[in-house]
Amino acid sequence: MRKSKIPTIIGIFILVFGLAAGVLLVRNQNFFRLGASAEFAPKDVRISNITDSSATISWITDRETSGFVKWGEAQDSLDKTELDELTAQSFTHTLTLRSLKPQTAYFFKINSGGEDFDNNGIPWQLNTGLEINLPSKTNLVSGVVLTASGEPAKNALVYATVGGGSLLSTITSQTGNWVIPISAVRSQDLSNLVVVDEKNSLIEISVNAGPGGVASAQIYPQSARPAPSIILGQVHDFKSLPANETSEIPKASIGLPEEATPSSGFSVEEQAATPSAQTVTLESVDNGEIITTTDPEF
Questions:
Q1: What is the pTM (predicted TM-score) of this model?
Q2: Residues 6+ apart with CB under 8 A from 62
Q3: Which residue stretches of the chain are H helix?
Q4: Alpha-carbon span 286 to 280, nearest angstrom
Q5: The domain 43-127 is classified under which CATH number: 2.120.10.70, 2.60.40.10, 1.10.8.100, 3.40.50.2300?
Q6: What are 134-178's pLDDT values in tens digits?
């Protein structure tokens, strides 16, 4: 009898030990997976530059990664995709949905680090504005974002509201420069254009460079061509600055990769991560897409 019990006791012990080890292994795998997901999870998701036919989506992550958006007109049918405009892995991310319908709801999820993320169990939602007549004259503001050590803050997300209007956004170039059109900024409900007063329409700017830090500034349009340098980690009050002597379209110096060669036309990609060996100056900027969004965060 004793001989038959010993193997049984040993077997039970092995079974219990194996079960415990399996539980610990699964828990550890889940822990590491959750840790990785948290690093790639999109944070500070903002919808900006909303028009009747386009909208910009931007976010940051705690770890450098690439991403894209799955979107569509129904929550359960996100059948379209739009890639991050920064092709290299980054802490900051931005993309623009185009060819949208006026006054239409759209839904989206963000794929970051190979995993889909939503807004607490449901897709994020944006609504386009109605069609309105746009001004013929382009009105731009510009500036540069620098780190605390004075280096250009490349690929930093720059957000702005003008006169209480909807949110505008852009991303800095490799040299830290940014340009935002304000001539077609819409009201918060997207139904009208905001009348921009050069002296009294306050521009509130916020910058998010991910782990590089954040910054904010206040300035009036007359003093923002260009605005003084915005330093990460600081809060700037430029409201008392005099008007710029010139009202020309601001110039943006954009760095080209070293291997770039002169040509009759060029396309500058802000996502290029190679250092600049030469620069070109844009003397004018075409009237491009309109920039607008709701619920700005500072």
A1: 0.73
A2: 38, 39, 40, 41, 43, 91, 210, 211
A3: 2-40
A4: 16
A5: 2.60.40.10
A6: 998 999 999 999 999 999 999 999 999 999 999 999 999 999 999
